[in-house]
Amino acid sequence: MSKFIYGHLPARIALTIIGLSLGYTITVVTRLPWWTLFLLAAVWVAVGLKLRWGRPINARYRKMWPWSLVPLSLLGIYVYLADSFGIVELGSIFFHLQAGMAEHGGPGKLIIAALYTAIMIAVLASVTWLTRHDQRWRLAERFFAIVLLACNPLLYGLGLRSAAIVTDDGAWLDRRYVSPPTNEPHDAPNLLVLYLESIERTYANEQFGDVYADLNALGERGAVFEGVRQMDNTGWTMAGMIASQCGVPLMPAGLLHDTQFEPLSKVVPGVDCLGDILAAQGYRLSYLGGASTQFAGKGLFYRGHGFDTVKGREELVPLLEDPEYVNSWGLYDDTLYDITVDEIRRLDQADNGPWGVVNLNLTGHAPNGYPSQSCAEHQGEFDGQNILYSVECSAWLARDLVERLEKEGLLDNTLVVLLSDHLTMRVSVWDQLTAMERDNTLIMLGEGIEPQRIRRDATMLDVFPTLLDALGFRLEEQRAGLGTSLFSDKRTLVEKHGIEVLNERLREETALQHRLWEGISPRRRSAQDSPQEQILETPADIADEVELIR
């Protein structure tokens, strides 16, 4: 009996813990259904018992610490991020660490993180026990430690980014940057930008039923852009907003930040964005979002780029009739949109030049969404899991807001832009989404915009010049930032080079990173500082350079 208790049972417990964790990891990083984790765990445990892992015939106990503990911990971090977000971007991790993650969505996130931590401790303890009791594990685990380090996507990404330090050309993207216009548009229209959290255009696919129907209905009245893809460093909320308002990917300050142990004081101060351009033309600008402006530097970005009014959860909750009607992130969209209507009334009644309102909702936020009570009255009860319910709710609320504003005459001479901030992260229909060709929502409504569908290979960088074009600004070569107006016949960077090339160049880029963080980063080396002339790689690259210089 004592041999069973002190020999067989600990080995079986250790094998079961590792087996379940291994099975879960495989289901997270592949498209296997969740229940296969139990099958994978059973196979693992069966093999372990057959080979007598942890209790060999000639057992030699040795008190030591496995080499694989650190690689396993790093892999655990990656699995947590992949399970939470689907696509893990290093840029997102670094930016949120520096810009701040306060007010990040309530205690639910902390509970999940604590659960993952407890599981990882159990895995590390199991590996340690097996390694100490089985010499075969002691011999093999060093090899697996190297394999785990080599296969971890986080470390692979770090290696690629580190290679940028010694790259031959770290200014490929920066050379293609075009400063935005400063001219005054004729009869400047008002502007309403509605960011629909994670509501990508892929949901318009018939496989998802009519959840996108209300956005399709709005799109029939204006310009619908298809093919707006997601390049690296544009795949989370702040990155999507900066890409679409500044025409650049969000490259975190990283080691460029001159106060490494202090939070960021500014967000991309080195480039002029939509707010800077409109404020210079006399626009009165407001940002309203259901979540906290303290999270991920949203408040810093909007206040630092020309917005007069910047309000999030902390400022808006006191305005609610029922302060308890909030979710873990912030306001529900029905109350956020009521406040948005009031803000537009205020700006419109002032009659003091054009106004601009940027709004960020929450309904479609992964993993399950935060549908409003008004949607339950419209759609029926929410099961708490199906993201398609939340997508339909978000689309209906957006259409209802636009129609309410139109009925009051508040959208006269107003450009209305509806777009997703980024592609959705891991949700209940993740496997279906990732099997499709995905693109972001981009719809523009307004006087002079004819009903049309424009199919272009583009990214969120191209939203910026397209928006400026629609507002009446004259663009140099129909470009601004790294984007190209999708109303023009000029080719986008994706059409010229392909998204894979852009992502590869982005990993090597350093000059654009310095441009974004000008003022809080060390001075960039000028051309006069460099003894060598910059090398252009291909004839196509040279042609592109000539086109931009002209």
UniProtKB/TrEMBL annotation:
TM helices/strands, residue ranges: 9-26, 32-51, 72-98, 110-131, 143-160
Keywords: Cell membrane, Membrane, Transmembrane, Transmembrane helix
Residue intervals of the Sulfatase N-terminal domain: 189-472
InterPro entries from the UniProt entry: Alkaline_phosphatase_core_sf, OpgB/LTA_synthase_biosynth, Sulfatase_N
UniProt-annotated location(s): Cell membrane
Lineage: superkingdom: Bacteria
GO cellular-component term (any): plasma membrane
Membrane topology: Multi-pass membrane protein
PANTHER family, A to Z: LIPOTEICHOIC ACID SYNTHASE (PTHR47371), PHOSPHOGLYCEROL TRANSFERASE I (PTHR47371:SF3)
Protein known as: Sulfatase N-terminal domain-containing protein
Organism from which the protein derives: Halovibrio variabilis
